Amino acid sequence: MGIEKYLPDGILLTTVEKAVNWSRKSSLWPLGFGLACCAIEMMSTFAPRFDLARFGMEIMRPSPRQADLMIVAGRVSTRMAPVIRQLWEQMPNPKYCISMGACASTGGIFNNYAIVQGVDRILPVDVYVPGCPPRPEQLIDGIMKLRAKIDSQRLKQEA
Amino acid sequence: MADRETMTLNMGPQHPATHGVLRIELDLEGETVIEARPIVGYLHTGIEKNMEAKTYTQALTMTDRMDYLAPLSNNLVYVQAIEKLMEVEVPIRAEYIRIIMTELTRLNSHLVWLGTHALDIGAMSMLLYCFREREKITQMYEFVSGVRMMASYFRVGGLTNDVPEGFEARVKDILDTFPARIDEYEGLLTENKIWRNRTIGVGVISAEDAIDAGFSGPNLRGSGVAWDLRKSKPYSIYDKFDFIIAAGKNGDCYDRYLVRLEEMRQSLRIIRQALDGLPEGPTKSSDRKISPPTKYEVLTGMEQLIHHFKLVVHGFLPPVGDVYHSIESPKGEIGCYLVSDGSKKPYRVHFRPPSFVNISAFNKLVAGRMLADVIACIGSIDIVLGEIDR
Amino acid sequence: MTITEEKLKTSYSDKIVEMFTFRGDLNVVIQPQDMPEICRFLKTEPELKYNFLSCITAADYLGQREKRFEVVYVLFSIPNNYRVILKTRVNENEEIPTLTSLWGTANWQEREIFDMFGLKFSGHPNLKRILMDDDWVGYPQRKDFPLTYEVPNFSFNKDEQDYRREAPWRGDEWPTEKP
Predict the structure, then answer these.
(1) Quick one: CA torsion of C173, C174, C178, C179, rounded to 10 degrees?
(2) Contact B250/B221 with Cβ under 8 angstroms?
């Protein structure tokens, strides 16, 4: 396999992009941000049965300055929307967003004056996870898809 | 020389220790809290107004989402309010299964309370233990209704459908393993020096203050008032079961913790009695104006077909009037005020949330105490923001 | 005849508008200005002792009654285990005396009624919005406040598809009520 035949054991060759993407996806630190019922299923995903620590997401950072994944779990009311936007702006790049549950994705069963019909009206969302609330396996599937998306990112900054 | 000034600190809607999106404005002088003002409304969903646009059975699914840690409790108060208004007889087997599921819900809610309260104070392993136990209960929900959390399992006149085979074996399995686990939690926390230092004498509220503030449930019982709606105004068939009400003495966080632990044990006792006495029979009311008939009857009988059609297209029509019904949810007294104008949609539904009333008196618990006690008190009064903001 | 009925009839028979028992609960309708007096009587009378205010709520009967709003108070007596429901009927601009001095729990529940219905309580220490934003216009729980239902861009629901197909001909811009 080319040059790797001549190298001693324990050395791998790869591109910088692949290494950076691998390290970013393996240790996503979620922002501890549960709003409503989906937060309980998110907590269940952190719990022993559907362990999220095996994906490197064990540390739930309460401060947005130290987190890079925001899982919007729960219904976003119109009063809470500016707060979420401010938290999103406070997170440093590269940052990702998973919209968990039907209420965060599209407004869910609440189509009325008080609920923002989908958090993608205020934030750019990477992965939508449907369900009311989504099972922990569904959330893990969403995280897997996010990891695949991060894998395909380019290092060059998009405009 | 140095002017003393009060600092106003905002414990914002996003915080790891507020259970949900609660915002508290604290006036601090050093580390001592002078006044704490809780500000709610960051999760307001307009559930009450939205329920007016749906039929009674459709609106039932919205009640799950209020107190999302004890969803079947909310279902129960709503369904029983309609049954009180319409004077519906519920078959006895349905009542027994309702009691079993409601007491499992109480266990569910208290486990999450214990896990998060202990996590805030610092005992992180309790969270993992409690969620491990909770998995058994959510699997029970899934076994019976198909959904892990928002079951919507109760209907006016009984249940959605009968429990599948193997229900009793599973409940027996829970009854066999739980008491040892609760002993384990008690062994970890009750005599623990750090736990006692953080919770004894913290957040004290006297019995008169608690009644004046409208506390109910374990918060009221922690202050010494033995008021439990399951004994005072028995709803469903709670008067057939034998259980005690736990009440504390001092009204501090430690007493509330002990009261809730004892409630978990009493819930297991009730489930055991209900399981032993579970009768055979139908699980839906036989009044065909309210409950749809079985599939076989619909396919073979004309009258049943018409009943099924009217119920699915229109829904049932309660009489005109208004009624208030309240039950003992794990957090306190949850009430449902239902106004009907004779149509298929509720005219006005209002839920009296226990957490809303409990947090309104938060200032009495923490005024004059340190900042760390604020965290212990929030955990101890057990609030759920979905219920406060509806 | 329960003891509460007797006591109220002997002491306040001129102030009671209506008294009836519905589904096992005693409902008493009184005028708003008599509210503090009767509540104080119910709370302090030794044989009644209604010391627990469970719930204050309201309902909007727009177009069905001459007094538009009805405010409902549910009282419990913990020592004696009684329950009574008090009701008053008001119009939009009438004020109701607050019960914060009798029961502390009335504070937030009256604020919620002000927020949702726009009914003012005179003498309330802090009558501000509690669930909605501070600068929200309108009172959501009133019957003339629309649900603000947003018709989705695509739906599998046949009713909504029919509505969307016919909406341009009806001249609807942004539908606010569910079709």
Answers:
(1) 20
(2) no
Q: Which two tokens stand for residue C50?
A: 């209604």
Give A13's Cβ-side CA count (13 Å radius).
8
Kindly list the domain boundaries of chain C, sorted by start residue: 3-145
Q: Which tokens sit at C104?
A: 């502390």
Residue A1: what pLDDT? 58
Question: Which residues lie closer than 8 Å to C154 by C-beta, 6 or more apart?
Answer: none
ipTM of predicted complex: 0.86
Kindly report the number of other CB atoms within 10 A of residue C156's CB atom: 7
Q: Which residues of B touch C24 (CB under 8 A)?
A: 84
Question: C133, C139, C160, C176: which to substitute to probe chain A, counting the most A Cβ within 10 Å?
Answer: C133
Residue C147 is predicted with a pLDDT of 80
Residues in Cβ contact with A38 at an 8 Å cutoff, skipping those fewer than 6 apart = A73, A74, A100, A101, A103, A104, A133, A134
What is the token pair recorded at C115?
């927020």
Classify B113 as helix, strand or coil. Answer: helix
Cβ C128 vs Cβ C107: under 8 Å: no
- For residue B66, the SS3 value is coil
| Chain C residue closest in CA terms to B327 | C54
Do the Cβ atoms of C150 and A78 come within 8 Å? Answer: no
Q: How many CB atoms lie within 10 A of CB A3?
A: 7
Contact assignment for A47 to B134 by CB distance below 8 Å: yes
Tell me the shortest Cα–Cα distance from B32 to chain A, in angstroms.
24
Domain ranges in chain B?
47-389
Of A33, A75, A110, the CB nearest to B14: A33
- The rounded distance, in Å, linking the Cα atoms of B105 and B138 is 9
- Looking at per-residue confidence, does C1 or C124 come out higher? C124
Rounded to 5 degrees, φ, ψ at B61 are: -70, -20
Burial class of residue C171 (count of CB atoms within 10 Å of its CB; 0-12, 13-18, 19+) = exposed
Whether residue A128 is predicted with pLDDT greater than 90 in this model: the reply is yes
The correct CATH number of C3-145 out of 3.30.460.80, 3.90.1010.10, 1.10.10.10, 3.30.1050.10 is: 3.30.460.80
Interacting residues of A79 by C-beta distance below 8 A, sequence separation 6+: B41, B42, B44, C132, C133
Q: Are strands C69-77 and C82-90 parallel, antiparallel or unpaired?
A: antiparallel
Alpha carbon of B328: minimum distance to chain C alpha carbons (Å): 13
* Consecutive H or E run containing C87: strand C82-90
The answer to whether C55 contacts B337, with C-beta atoms less than 8 Å apart, is yes
Q: Which pLDDT score is estimated for B2? A: 63
**B135 has a chain A CB within 8 A of its CB:** yes
Q: Any CB–CB contact under 8 A between A49 and chain C?
A: no
Distances (CA, A) of A159 to A88, A156, B315: 19, 9, 55
Identify all chain B residues contacting C149, using CB atoms and an 8 Å cutoff. 53
Contact B209, B364 (CB under 8 A): yes
CB atoms near residue C101 (< 10 Å): 13
Q: Are B308 and B284 in contact (CB under 8 A)?
A: no
How far, in Å, CA of C121 to CA of C95, rounded? 5
Looking at the structure, give the CATH architecture of the domain made up of residues B47-389. Orthogonal Bundle (1.10)
pLDDT-derived band of residue C170, with 50, 70 and 90 as boundaries? low
* Mean pLDDT of chain B, nearest integer: 88
Single-letter amino acid, residue B121: I
